[in-house]
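Help needed: design a sequence for this.
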């Protein structure tokens, strides 16, 4: 009887642990996809070093459902037009899974256009004036697009104490390789300008011990609120304007 009790305890503990750890692979439908916010909003990006705040860069994010040749997609775009810098990107993903299809980025480098496949990311040769035509990044498995992390994180299976693993890559990056990243979930009541006191989910990651970062989302409707990160003594912030 003692052995049976021990087996039941171990089985329960194992089951509870499994429920708290989730590995999300590209191509699997997100259960919370229907809660993805199809909207346009603005947020600011700025840094703080030695107590001095940089001039904020105003950015606009837009998530839309579109159709191309009878096929449904989600188009996620960010744009920023400021005296200090300007640019934009537009990422195309499949609905329900957010599996990346393509992305076009405009910056001081010029136009960078990429096509995502299961085994590689390549320069989009059909894009005119693409400075990334010769780009190729081999993949051991499909990855999510790091450029749309704010939107991707918003529909994760949030649960207090949960650990989540996901594969990501930033197309065109010269500093990071495709790989899996670890995230943990907690919750917090915070005061938000324009909203008051809000119940939030907090997503924690350190990007493989390089940059401790936290993201806040409203529990009510999964809206992005803010991001705080630390990198080499500098604080980095993204703050939504409500």
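Sure. Designed sequence:
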């Amino acid at each position: 009887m003692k052995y049976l009790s021990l087996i039941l305890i171990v089985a329960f503990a194992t089951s509870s642990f499994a429920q708290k750890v989730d590995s999300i692979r590209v191509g699997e439908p997100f259960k919370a996809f229907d809660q993805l916010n199809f909207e346009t909003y603005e947020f600011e990006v700025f840094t703080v070093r030695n107590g001095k705040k940089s001039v904020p860069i105003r950015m606009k994010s837009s998530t839309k459902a579109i159709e191309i040749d009878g096929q449904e997609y989600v188009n996620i775009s960010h744009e920023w037009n400021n005296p200090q810098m300007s640019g934009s990107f537009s990422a195309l993903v499949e609905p329900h899974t957010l599996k990346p299809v393509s992305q076009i980025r405009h910056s001081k480098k010029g136009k960078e256009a990429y096509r995502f496949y299961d085994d590689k990311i390549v320069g989009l040769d059909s894009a005119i004036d693409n400075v990334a035509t010769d780009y190729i990044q081999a993949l051991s498995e499909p990855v999510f697009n790091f450029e749309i992390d704010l939107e991707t994180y918003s529909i994760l299976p949030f649960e207090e104490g949960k650990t989540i693993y996901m594969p990501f890559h930033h197309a065109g990056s010269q500093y990071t390789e495709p790989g899996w990243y670890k995230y943990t979930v907690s919750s917090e009541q915070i005061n938000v300008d324009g909203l008051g006191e809000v119940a939030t989910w907090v997503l924690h990651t350190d990007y493989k011990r390089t940059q401790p970062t936290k993201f806040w989302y409203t529990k009510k409707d999964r809206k992005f609120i803010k991001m705080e990160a630390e990198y080499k003594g500098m604080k980095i912030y993204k703050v939504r304007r409500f």
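The first helix runs from residue 2 to 20.
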